[in-house]
Amino acid sequence: MAAEAPSPATTGASAVPKVAIEVDPLYAEAGEAKDVWSLVSLIAPEQDETSEESARAPLKLCAVIDKSGSMSGSKLDLVKETLEFMTGQLTDKDSFSIVAFDSSVSTPLPLCKMTALNKSKALSVVKNIHAGSCTNLSGGLFAGLEALKGGGPAAVDIFDLVSSYLKKKDHAELTIRMKATPVEQEVLDLRGRRRGKKQAQKKSGGGFMQAMSNFFGRKSKKAPVQASPSPMQAPIMQQQSNVDPFASFPQQMMQQQVMQNEVAIGSSSSDEEERKTEKACNIAVKVDESALRPLLSNVKIVLPNGSVVLAMSRDEGKKWGAYLSPPQVKAVMEAGGIVKVKASVLFSDKQEEVFDFKLSEVEEKAQEKVSLPGYKVEAERRKKEKEEGDAASSKKEDEVVSCFLFTDGIANVGVTNTVGICQETTKRMTALTSHFGKSPTIYTFGFGADHSQDMLQAIAETGRGMYYYLENKTQIAPSFADALGGLLSVVLQEVEVELRPLNKAVIKKVETNYPKRDGSNGATIFTIGELFSEERRDTLVQLALPGEKADPASSANAAAVARGELAASFSYLQVIIRYHSIISGSGGQESSILSVYRPMEMTDEMKGKNGQNKEIEKQRIRIETVNVFENVRRMKEQNGGRMDDDLLAFAREEVQKSVATFTASPFANDAMTQQCIADLDSYAADLRDVSSYEKVASKKEAWSVAQHKYQRAATNAIVEEGAMESAYANRKKMSLRAKSKR
Questions:
Q1: CB–CB of 480/715 below 8 Å?
Q2: Can you tell me the distance from the alpha carbon of 67 to that of 70, in angstroms, rounded to the nearest whole number?
Q3: pLDDT per position as a tens digit, 78-135
Q4: What phi and psi values does residue 507 have, to the nearest 5 degrees?
Q5: pTM here?
């Protein structure tokens, strides 16, 4: 029997979820104890994107991107294009962060509002992501979760300056200071005091980088001038820059120069005299205003001949430094001593700020100040706005918080086992739940044949998100778009379902994959969390009904017959849904009752109404589909974690049997049943050999299980017109996937 969805009285029809209940059998004889199955369905309201009343919640999203060596080339290029697409879908009420990892982890884009300025910043950051070395997946994930809290470097969004401010000649206190300090070239240090290159490197542990550190850390014997700290001592790259700062002065050039200098020393009458004639130069661009540091990037020194020396960032952007070799210094001085210092400043209306700077020929520090207009007044105004915004955000307003983790490989640095990474993730998720007042989610994206689907699925389940399997590069953009479409269509949060047995009924089984706990008086409670627009969650519940006593049952049935009904109904289950509505901005609760007719004697008409319940049978097919996938995985685990030919043949046969059964079902034409059949059919085709299972089928296994378990689409492709769309997809997901097509 289908229970009527309650009529929304106060919150408005568009904000209220619907609750429906089916039961089989519908009639059970009064004197007989009987087990029945009920289907409890929760249907989320639709999001009306044209209505302000139905406005979505702001999104806080961190994209954690694998940039290990295996990501190089077109693969990483497509990920970067997809990040650019995602940035374009966010508005200034959304916050976005980017974490990149290989062996190390960086946060090139701290969490910031997606204003026009910060979108520009994000695009700049994305362009500067380059492939590196190994895969510190755990470090990337943990940094991504931490980034969701915000903080870290000064937030960029409070300096969203408009061009009109920049055009005013309002010189504020903010300056960039540059200094050039000539230092004497100590050739003997670079050569290990004539010990020979190999011996010097062995002793210093070093090679080129150690030699440069030694060079800048020593005083000249002849001229006791302390060189300014070199940017090459303990170099710290600016987070948004992955460019090699030594690209314009490779090791071979350095070695060649050392050899030339050694020849010169050998032919000179005095080593001291030779050291006077060889000058190197350390140029430092200091950024004293801490608020400007996250906005400054791509600092470089342009020499008179047009060659470029890239500067390296240290102390979190406080200083950018570049080293000019003696030949470079000599060439500059011969051309008049002027170099150009170029820097990208995000709040500038020019692509690049350019400052002329004259090198000094004497051993004194040279310094110039450069004013950047329009900063101080606007910064004060934005600071006030930020303080007001922080005060407002402390009220825990509606927001959706999530983390995307993308990788194509196996974790080989940091925490590398699934149990360990999930345990640590659980701790961090608990802390974030306390911080935000709601649980964030984690979505994982595994590309190609080499990632660990077991780890990524486990992380996604720990984070109450979804695992996406990306078989080829064309699936990168639609997969991210699908996940983002879901987050942008969240209509319900903190959804909790309570099942209360009534009139001595007993709950025997609840078919759900969500966390459950026992309530009072035999109740069962489980938490769903977030629901997207139009999504539904279906739960099968097995109830044991008592045998109703003759007297009350007889009296009730007599009254029912007098009303023209076949039999009296008795209530056995109350379903209570608690939730927070994004649409209405308030919490709510809905309730519905399951009833079963208890006649004194069953008639043929009643028996006829006890036929198969279509909705219940469809959900059994969905649950059985999950079991088929998980049974194959279980068989592999029982075989020592190995898949062999015999096991593969048995698994293929079992899958094909299920496909045949579902195809013959009266409900085979139902959209969800068709998806179950299609997923199993595709899976069976990839069970042809062990290699195909490990590379493809095992990924499809984890991917399909997640979708059917949680009734949520994780579509990895653009569905062409006329093709079968996921039974679990909503309009927003489909719309963004279509937009992602290039």
A1: no
A2: 8
A3: 999 999 999 999 999 999 999 999 999 999 999 999 988 889 889 989 998 999 989 9
A4: -80, 120
A5: 0.69
CA distance 688 to 611: 40
Tell me which amino acid residue 487 is: L
Asked if residue 394 lies in contact with residue 187, where contact means CB atoms within 8 angstroms, the answer is no
> Residue 220 burial (CB < 10 Å; 0-12/13-18/19+)?
middle
Token pair for residue 276?
């006077």
What is the residue-averaged pLDDT of the chain?
A: 77
> How far from 522 is each of 500, 502, 507, 517, CA to CA, in Å?
7, 9, 7, 11
DSSP letter (8 states) at residue 362? S
Are the C-beta atoms of 423 and 462 separated by less than 8 Å? no
Position 136, amino acid: N
Cβ-based neighbours of 494, under 8 Å, separated by 6 or more = 438, 527, 529, 578, 579, 580, 587
Per-residue pLDDT tens over the stretch 688-737 = 999 999 999 999 999 999 999 999 999 888 776 667 788 999 999 999 99
d(CA 258, CA 348): 41
Strand order in the sheet with 338-345: 308-310, 296-302, 338-345, 353-358
Structure tokens at 478: 């639609």
DSSP type of residue 694: I
Q: Are 368 and 356 in contact (CB under 8 A)?
A: no
At residue 351, the pLDDT reads 55
CA angle 448, 452, 456 (to 5 degrees): 100
